[in-house]
Amino acid sequence: MELQRPSRLEELDGGLVLAGGTDLVPLLRDGLVKTDTLVDVRAVVPRGVDGTKIGAGTTLSELEFDPEIPAALREACALAASPQLRSMGTIGGNLLQATRCWYWRLDFPCFLHGGSRCHAREGAHREHAIFGNERCASAHPSDPAAALLALGARLRTSRRELGIEELYRLPTEDDRDVTALEPGELILELDVPRPEASTYLKAMDRARWAFPLVGIAAARFAEGVRLALAGVAPIPLRIESEADLDKATPLPGTAYKVELARPLIRRALQAVT
Ligand SMILES: Cc1cc2nc3c(=O)[nH]c(=O)nc-3n(C[C@H](O)[C@H](O)[C@H](O)COP(=O)(O)OP(=O)(O)OC[C@H]3O[C@@H](n4cnc5c(N)ncnc54)[C@H](O)[C@@H]3O)c2cc1C
Ligand code: SF4
């Protein structure tokens, strides 16, 4: 495998993008992702915070400790992964991390891998989704993505600008991807509006170093409070209120997540209002 280290965006010419490598390197090691060319983009993707702009190469630990960053994003970063992973992992890579579904990670020929079945729906699915789970029941693992969704962040890529909700899509028969990024498209920068108040709360199996069973981000703006959930659908999910939980379609093993989400939503709303 060839490793390229471009110093300018214009030098990029295909290959698989590598940032901190905390998600990608294990996938390469396990043969779940294959490539002839890895492109280390750390010298070309902006890093750091400037007003409301955050470089996609900024690490989670840099965001966790920056007082300029809205609380929901700071708290989501602080509650993600471990200190070692947060000091390597970038916010851009976090938004594009692959599913943690173990059937997928063990290379079962499931729907997301291009097959016709969802093994988790029929098998072990305690950590899986309660929304949007008809074809693939995976639960999106990113805490910061839910925070950014509640904050109404926008992304600048190497090709366009888009709202964070446009970054994600449920997988379909024709396209099994959960993001709308085109091949070769780089996330360069995020623009994160400043709310009047915001928070991120997370239910997890351990108090540290665990993916969200349910994560809730709440952000209060003059127009009202925006809510978003992590760990409940194959993509981060915007909801309007707790009442939206009544539309959940849980599997037998994930029904507990609906009840877990209710008090979290109330506590998050209390914290920002
Ligand atoms: C054990 C473990 C526990 C974790 N726990 C949590 C958790 O609780 N909550 C949570 O939110 N996350 C968690 N994570 C995920 C972790 O935060 C991510 O692995 C990390 O943020 C990814 O960033 P990276 O820079 O290392 O990405 P990489 O591994 O380098 O890349 C990840 C993906 O993003 C693509 N990519 C990277 N940067 C760009 C860019 N700028 N433009 C386009 N594509 C890009 C890569 O091609 C690859 O597909 C955990 C990870 C591990 C391994
Ligand atoms: S939840 Fe998604 S990733 Fe997991 S087995 Fe089902 S289709 Fe595959």
Q: How do the helices and strands follow one another from N- to C-terminus?
A: EEHEEEHHHHHHHEEHEEEEEH
The proportion of strand residues reads 15-25%
Which stretches are poorly predicted, pLDDT < 50 over at least 5 residues? none
Instruction: Indicate the percent of residues in helices.
Output: 25-40%
Which radius of gyration do the C-alpha atoms yield?
Answer: 18 Å
The average pLDDT value, as a whole number, equals 97
Euclidean distance between termini CA atoms: 52 Å
Structural class: alpha+beta
The small-molecule ligands in this entry are: flavin-adenine dinucleotide, iron/sulfur cluster
Number of helices: 10
Number of strands: 12
Strand order of the largest sheet: 4-5-8-6-7
What is the makeup of the main sheet? 5 strands, antiparallel
Characterize the overall form. Answer: globular
